[in-house]
Design brief:
This protein has eight helices and six strands; from the N terminus they run E-H-E-H-E-E-H-E-E-H-H-H-H-H. With 242 residues, the protein is α+β, with helices and mostly antiparallel strands. Helix 6 runs antiparallel to helix 8. The two termini are 19 Å apart.
Length: 242
């Protein structure tokens, strides 16, 4: 099974980090609570929903990138820019159900408390690409306003299949069938819909995930492999393009 340590490095437009362990723990607590409450393995929360508004968000995380509009300053130095998490920051969590002593969670209906979830990855990221925010974008704008699909599928695409976590899909698959049945149903319905009907363009996919596919055909083939990997015992972990 392909795992992250067998893959080349992957980076998104921003390099991000939490500024303190306290900020990271606070984010994990809030995201874990949202995961359990909403039956969502990849919750996404606005920065201010966790840390408070305005100055309360300062000092919690850093995001840095090279300015794509002006990569070099007048004196030839690299022109770095920083994201302002106080206005458009997002917090992403990716969790997986924890196996018990007998290899199963206690409740067949899915995780019920903190001990039933393991953290796969947790990261801060600036707000959505050019006002395209997974927390607020209407499902209809993505062609996902269909029976059986809800906001959790957008979170799945943006979080689990997003640039920071997509190479950890192999860590999730082993226990995916221990997740909440309604969550599995949403992801199944969403993947079937995007493979059969191709509502998401490659541009929209990049805006959600920061993973760029060369064309619609390759995006469809990749999502078909994700479906087979999670629901049909397809052995090889699908690998997104660099």
């Amino acid at each position: 099974m392909t795992m992250r340590d067998e893959l080349p490095p992957r980076t998104g437009p921003w390099a991000t980090r939490f500024d303190s362990e306290e900020a990271m723990v606070q984010a994990d607590d809030a995201l874990r609570e949202a995961a359990l409450k909403n039956h969502d393995l990849s919750p996404i929360l606005p920065f201010e929903a966790v840390y408070g508004e305005g100055e309360n968000c300062l000092g919690k995380a850093t995001a840095i990138t090279i300015d794509p509009r002006r990569p070099y300053s007048a004196d030839g130095e690299v022109n770095y820019v920083y994201a302002d998490f106080s206005t458009r920051g997002l917090l992403y969590g990716v969790y997986r159900p924890a196996e018990g002593a007998e290899g199963e969670v206690e409740d067949e209906n899915g995780p019920t408390d903190d001990a039933d979830l393991r953290n796969t990855t947790l990261y801060p990221y600036p707000g959505g690409y050019e006002e395209f925010d997974p927390v607020t974008v209407p499902l209809a704008d993505l062609g996902l306003d269909v029976p059986g699909v809800d906001r959790r599928f957008v979170n799945f695409c943006a979080g689990i299949l997003g640039v920071e976590a997509v190479d950890d899909l192999g860590m999730l698959r082993d226990t995916f069938d221990l997740a909440w049945p309604d969550y599995q149903g949403v992801i199944r319905a969403g993947l079937m819909h995007v493979v059969a009907n191709e509502p998401l363009t490659v541009e929209q996919w990049f805006a959600l995930t920061y993973v760029k596919f060369p064309d619609q055909r390759e995006l469809r083939a990749y999502l078909a492999q994700v479906y087979a990997y999670l629901f049909e015992d397809f052995d090889a972990m699908p690998v997104a393009p660099q």
